[in-house]
């Protein structure tokens, strides 16, 4: 949470910059940090000046974690998208000099509507918007992919599988599920198509929806050059359906999405290629969750939110296994009895008490971000309590499963899969990996096991 002094300083910097742009005094009111954005800060405020009052949004890198090239690409992409008829927030200002507002930034006009996926999917006021939205998202992606590549110079490009492997190796946390996914992706690469400008994070959460439909596309920080079907696959990844059984962002069918795309693009993307990208981006998201957690673990950006995201790796491992045809089979573990050495309340009892305090007292705060972080912290403690209760039995059977394959730890098993010493399609291997992921998810987020796949 930002200290009052930090907010005042940021407000003063924004006033100075906006005054320079307007040529007349501008004051900043109601500056507050929003809950959105684990990788970048998002702030809302009102700018008041001679021309009137205007609601604006600031996105900036966390101070000290500057990515000036990325912010410049994001600003250029928003401008190019606007020129191509894509609905985006009007760009007001951008810059990479940290002296302006503390780090590279961009400022856009506020666009009214909703970004939270569960609200878009469930609230009655968005019922009209939901009808036909999957097709509209397809049409929007076709417009994005038609943006000329030279309209945004410097777009990064990489081999999709090798980029995953490089990221995975840099984390130094071997995961058998990821090794299996990487081998599957390498074997099943789709036929190539012409490169396009790829948004990179097109999903609920980065889209503003109002009661009539799509209002704006946000968050262009992952824009790059590549296979346009990547955006389509990412929109179908299970975690962004928020519990809905519908495969496209919880909103509609793949046919609706691809038919909408074809209306603008003139051709229908190959459905199997889109599914390949769904597997790819599920793997990518697993690694991205672990990367964000590393920012906390390394001390670069201490954050309960980033720490919590690290435990979401298990959700993505589960989704990968579902995509590859390996559903979960729950095998409930016996809870460990509390130690008589420490007495009651036991460690799980204390965790439960703090969790209840966060949910019942802190989450009731009028401070929106504090309430959000309290919910994150309560969810984290819920997982800690489950690990205290179930962890010893989970650990015992995890070791037994590994031993049944002749390995002493997960790292050894992952290395064997990579080296081809064990067939990544071997049913015995897949059963061991599937059981381990199920146990991890039973601690991290047991409700996720019940969501439609």
UniProtKB/TrEMBL annotation:
Domain Aminoglycoside phosphotransferase: 31-276
A Pfam family the protein falls into: DUF6285
DUF6285 domain mapped to chain residues: 367-448
Native source organism of the sequence: Actinomycetospora succinea
Record-linked InterPro entries: ACAD10_11_N (IPR041726), AGP_Transferase (IPR051678), Aminoglycoside_PTrfase (IPR002575), DUF6285 (IPR046252), Kinase-like_dom_sf (IPR011009)
MF terms in GO: kinase activity
UniProt KW keywords: Kinase, Transferase
Protein name listed in UniProt: Aminoglycoside phosphotransferase (APT) family kinase protein
């Amino acid at each position: 949470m930002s200290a009052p002094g930090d907010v005042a300083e940021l407000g003063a910097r924004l006033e100075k910059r906006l005054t320079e742009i307007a040529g007349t005094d501008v004051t900043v009111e109601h500056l507050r940090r929003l809950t959105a954005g684990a990788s970048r800060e998002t702030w809302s405020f009102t700018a008041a000046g001679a021309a009137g009052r205007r609601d604006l949004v600031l996105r900036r890198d966390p101070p000290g974690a500057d990515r000036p090239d990325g912010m410049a690409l994001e600003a250029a992409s928003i401008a190019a998208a606007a020129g191509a008829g894509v609905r985006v927030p009007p760009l007001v200002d951008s810059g990479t000099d940290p002296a302006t507002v503390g780090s590279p930034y961009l400022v856009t006009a506020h666009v009214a509507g909703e970004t939270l996926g569960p609200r878009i999917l469930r609230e009655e006021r968005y019922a009209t918007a939901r009808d036909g939205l999957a097709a509209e998202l397809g049409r929007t992606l076709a417009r994005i992919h038609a943006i000329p590549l030279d309209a945004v110079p410097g777009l990064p490009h990489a081999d999709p599988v090798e980029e995953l492997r490089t990221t995975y190796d840099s984390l130094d946390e071997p995961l058998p599920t990821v090794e299996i996914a990487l081998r599957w992706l390498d074997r099943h690469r789709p036929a190539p198509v012409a490169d396009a400008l790829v948004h990179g994070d097109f999903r609920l959460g980065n889209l503003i929806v109002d009661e009539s439909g799509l209002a704006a596309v946000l968050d262009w920080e992952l824009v790059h050059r590549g296979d346009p079907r990547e955006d389509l696959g990412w929109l179908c990844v299970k975690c962004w359906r928020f519990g809905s059984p519908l495969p496209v962002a919880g909103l509609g069918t793949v046919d609706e999405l691809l038919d909408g795309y074809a209306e603008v693009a003139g051709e229908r993307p190959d459905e199997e290629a889109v599914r390949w990208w769904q597997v790819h981006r599920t793997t990518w998201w697993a690694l991205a969750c672990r990367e964000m957690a590393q920012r906390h673990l390394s001390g670069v950006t201490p954050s309960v939110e980033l720490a919590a995201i690290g435990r979401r790796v298990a959700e993505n491992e589960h989704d990968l296994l579902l995509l590859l045809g390996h559903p979960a089979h729950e095998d409930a573990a016996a809870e460990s009895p509390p130690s008589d050495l420490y007495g009651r309340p036991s460690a799980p009892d204390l965790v439960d008490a703090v969790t209840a305090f966060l949910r019942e007292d802190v989450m009731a705060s009028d401070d929106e971000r504090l309430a959000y972080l309290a919910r994150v912290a309560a969810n984290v403690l819920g997982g800690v309590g489950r690990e205290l209760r179930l962890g010893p039995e989970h650990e015992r059977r995890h070791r037994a499963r590994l031993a049944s394959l002749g390995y002493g730890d997960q790292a050894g098993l992952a290395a064997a899969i990579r080296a081809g010493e064990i067939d990544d399609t071997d049913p015995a291997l897949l059963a061991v990996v599937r059981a381990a992921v199920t146990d991890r998810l039973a601690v991290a987020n047991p409700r996720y096991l019940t969501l439609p796949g």
